[in-house]
Amino acid sequence: MAALAIAAYQFLPDEMWWLTGWQVGIGWAGVAALLVGAHRLPRPERLPWWLFAAGVFSNSTGIAVASVSEAWYGLVDLPTPADPFFLGLYPACAAALAVLIRRRDPRSDWPALVDAATITTGFGLLAWVYVIAPVNLGDPMDRLAHATEVAYPIGDLLLIAMTSRLLRSGGSRGAPFWWITGSLTAFLVGDCAWVVLDNLGVTGEVLELPWVQRGLESVFLVAFVLFGVACLHRGAREVAAPADARPAGLGIGLLALLAGASLIAPAVLAAQTASGEVADGWSIAACSAVLFLLVVARMALLIRHVERQARQVRELARSDELTGLPNRRAWNDELPRALERARRNSEPVAVAILDLDHFKRYNDTFGHPAGDQLLKAASAAWHATLRDVDVIARFGGEEFVVLLPAAGVGDARRAMARALAATPLGQTFSAGLAVWDGVETSDELLKRADAALYEAKAAGRNRVEVAGQASRLAA
Question: What's in the GO CC field (predicted)?
């Protein structure tokens, strides 16, 4: 329906009130769609849509105010009574975007912020050189008019910054997200077209062509409609849904945009050099310096992220995914070090291998998820009974190993008895215990503990057996 209304706009009579009424009607229809869609959402989720509705209402109402001001009062020079309405779009939409960004990314996302700043700085130089700087704000006769003229590109830069940050946010990327992005892009495209025509000095000439003027005005009508389409979509609620933590990424599209923004300063310098006069050297230099610092900051954040990921990979490589305990690799690194410390300090050290009794039968009876829960609960319960200096690791399957520094046979037996009593869900384990003889290798020590484990199983399970050749060591 909205598409038909926009298409029909191209064929309306060339009469101001027809055109004005049609534009305002489409704008207010977009506002109505936003209010209806927001009413369907839970009350806490309505705020950004209300803000979008306020911006669209202000901007579309400005069309009517501009027509009345021109037709009845002859007010066409800046500032007109319509300018506050047109400018009202920017703070309202920026506030709505700020709410969405905050809800989608509750935590600070510095890489996204730096990316948005880089894009905005690059386009900000274009706005300064071709729109803001040429305006003589020092002329007291036209100061308010010039300030009004400057307010539009500043508002566009605000939308560019917020839209860039929204695109770098986490959360759902469903249809409503892209409708919002499309609407904001349409506003920016329309404003940029006006700026380009104005800088070429052909605004009046070009806009005298009805198809050009109506085509350009249709861009803003599309922007009005897309907000309403986004809010009425069934996925509108997901737009403000918090996102899970996700790694900072640099896709090809984002890299291209960042590269393009970073090249704006040298491109402007090249253009002015080719024209024979570098009129904005200081502005270009300042923009280049800011862009350089932003690129350095982005590289630092990226390097820090890579280092953090590398640490996480190393930690994951040494920990068991299910129980969170050290894994076999970590155990194989720790045991030789523990034996060397025991050698230097002339202290005993004990090793135990634990195996949950009848674990396969438990899995077959209750299912593998229940088996995983048993492994997690048992390992946590056993860990709680050990000393801070003791180490428990998952050796594989339902088998665990325990390192007991400075523990003789008696201390090690008591530690294993406490762990056996703490086994949850009415389950038991069999364990083989070996105390280092001061000479054997770590593999030999584990082999003795493993032999004792098999003795425990053969003796009926639910017990701790001490390996031979360890009885000569004092408790």
Answer: plasma membrane
